[in-house]
Structure formats: structure tokens, C-alpha cells
Amino acid sequence: MFFLEALYAKEGRARARLRSRDFRVGISVALAPGSGLQSRARPAGELNTMMSRPGLVVVALVLFATVAARAAEGPKPGETLDQSTWREAETLLPPEILRHYREGEYSNPIVDWPESKYSWPPDFLAATKANAGRFTVGPRGEILSKETGKQPPYVLGLPFPTIDPSDPAAGVKVVWNQFYRFWYFGNLLAESQVNWISPRGLDRRTDLDVRFAYYDGVPADERLPNPQNFLTQALILVKAPADLHGTAALTWRYRDPDRRDSTWSYVPALRRVRAVSPANRSDGFLGSDMSQDDGPFFDGKPEDFEWHLKGEAEGLRFAEDLNLKDVSKARWVPEVGAWDADWPDTKFLGYMDPAWKGLAWAPTGPSVLARRPFWVVEGVPRDRYYLYGKLELWIDKLTYQGAWHRKYGWKGEQLNTMQVMAWNPIPFTRPNGKVDYMQGSNMAYQCAENLKLNRATVAGIKSSPTSHFYGRIKFNPDVFDVEALVRSGK
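Given the sequence above, the corresponding C-alpha cells read:
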């Protein structure tokens, strides 16, 4: 029972029901171990001789109000969110994430990422402004031109620069903005790890070559010929360990809203390509807790879900301290025609640092928390065979970078939370003088946490310090051919 209620109940006058959430937070803080009040507590009789009940109530109310106000303000830049300060973020993080700070499993500095600090690429920004009022959405959530009523041949920039929260289509518009912000940074070839992690350490490591090609949203000089009306293509090749070597997955996504993804897999033991249902993209890849529909944050087909805007929120999200200080390196590789990200050798996951005492998948090193405004969007799959019954996406209102992707079962139980880092884009100049904007990363953090089994899968780690992350690379279309899937898998 809360402290004030206990006082009144003792006289049979339990008349105070503190319904304010902030007040409940304050009361809990005041009585929590380590708050200082318990260590100074006196027997009831001694308290009564020191102070009347009305006086005690006044003191308690002042204390609670002070603590509640502090919690409402949230942690300040320069502070650290950890086991001693977690209550300050009680309204700023999903409960399953806040729990990690309460239990001493996560610890991250708070930094200032002002709304004014975002390096919008000039062509992206100009296109976003020009898109104002140009587009709407169709019955399945597809993007349509207001002028023609048809799907536009190409979109650059945010298709919906202004979101009206009262618009019934606001949710799907936010999701489309998230995609077009990400696609702008172009094709990617990455030699990276996907790792299974238990609370205390690394359980299993896989090394992959992943290729993503984007047919929409990229700058004009990076557009690919598109006679089949693709939206994206993705090829994943498993290089290690030996028992998975040669396994491959290929996906074609179409711009046609009524056409489902085409997905194939190749398993060396079977020595054949097998077509797979698009719903299987929600299953854990290779038995992990991360699915192909996770991608960099959420990579399902928007038209395959019914979306609505759940609300708006102030919250904390993961960012990278080096990036926010405008530090990032990439080198132009002329023989490849792409930028190769040059990451420093940092320990950015818990298991990488022997001195770390928290969860093995915790973001550490340059990982920080920044306060941002969010759209909170809810999506329900149209396909009842989809693994999850509901998705909740927290997407930055200003930059449209995803932060928290919370997944629920068909009975409403929460199963998994995807935790994703954000960056401020940084410009790089090619030898010929052309300026490209890149993500500006020095690390990556894409963590899918299985809340039922207390484990996680983390992606985006370079396979080795010399591995390549090629950005804005131009692929030969044959790379994504179904017949090439067998050749690649071998």
C-alpha cells in the first residue's frame, strides 16, 4: 500500500487515492531502497511525537511532488541512465527497456540531440518540400498521386512532409516516410555478423554477405532499370559457420500493392531452390530472434498491414556519441564504385568488454541515449499466418528513423522488441567532387530481444575489422536472379 494510504487506513480513513501516474512514481521512489527515506525511518510512536499526521502529510506531498517533477523532466544531458537513476526515464522508455536500467543491465550516458541538428541532404530536403500535397494513399495504403490517382513512377524525399494526427491514414504515411528516408542512402553490400546472445555471453555467431538494392527513393543517378516494377531486392548469403555455409535467401518486393513478395531459399543439403511464403519473413532467420521483416528496423511490405496512429510521445532512443560529434570515416573505392565505411575498433556490445557486468547484448561504448519526439504507430498483419499479431513502431517525428519495434502475439502478449540506433547523416566527397550523404556510423546496433526466452539477436557487426560495408554500390541485376541463388549458395 502506498505511504499516504497507509497513514489514512490506520485511522480507518483510507480516503486518498492517488491516481496521478507521476504521483505514483514519486511515492514509489520515496519508499524505494536506496532512496534515503528507509534509512532514516523511525518507529511509528517516535514519529508521532515528532510531527503530527497533517504535518507529515505536507512534507510527504512536497517530497513526492519534487520527485515526480524530476521524473517528468527526465534525465539531463551529461547524466547517465543506470540503476540509480532509472526512475527519471519512467515515462520515456518502453517498460521492457526501462527494466534493463532498473536491474543494472544497461547503462548509457544522456546526450543532447537538438531538433535543429540533422544534416538533411539538399536534394532530399528539396524533394521533400516539393512533395507537400502531391500524394495520398489508396485502399491498401499504397502511395498514389493526387493528380493522376495512380501510383507515381518514382518518389524522392519524404512523400508526406506533414502528418495530420487526425488523418485516418496518418499511420501508414508515417511508415512510408520511414522507408523513403532509409532508401535514400542507397544500395548496400555488407559483410556482417548476426549473433545469438544469452544474458551472459555470445552463444552462436553467423557471418553473412547481404545485398540490398532499392529501386525507389534513391538519387536520380543511382536509379536502376526497373521493367519488372520492383521496389526492393535482397540477397542474404551465409558464409559461416560450416553447418550453415551456402544457405541463401532471396526476396523480390514489388511496387504493385496487390502483389505479394516473391521469396526463395536455398539450402545446400537439399541442393535446390524452394519458394517460401511471404508470411515466413516474420519467422526468426536461421532460428534466431530476428526476422527478414525486421531489416534495419521494419522491412515488411506496408500494404500487407492495417496501420493506425496510436499517438505521439516524448522518449529516449539509442544514438551514437561519435556520430553526433560529426565523427565518421568512409573511403571511396573506385574499383567497386562505392563508399566503404571505416569503423574504429570499439567495444560497443556488452560481451565485447570483459569488465562489463550487465547484459551481454547491452549497447555500450559510444552508445548513448537522446531525447526525441516520436510517432507511435500500430500495425496489424492482413495475413493471419504472420507470426506476430500486432506491431508497435516508435518512429522519430523529425528524422523518421525507427527506434523501438515492439511485437505482440495474436493474443496480445508481448514477445519481442527490436532496438535500433540512429545517426545524423554526414557528407563525404568523391575524388570527382560529387558529394554523397551517408549514415555517418561508427558502429551499428540492431537488437531483437526475445522477451519470453531472455535472449537476443544482434546484427550489423562487421565480420572482421577489414570487412566491407559498401554504401551506394551499383549492382549487376543478375545478382538477384533466381538462378544465381544456386550459384551464390554453392
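The chain is about 20% helix and 30% strand. Try to locate this feature in the C-alpha cell string yourself.
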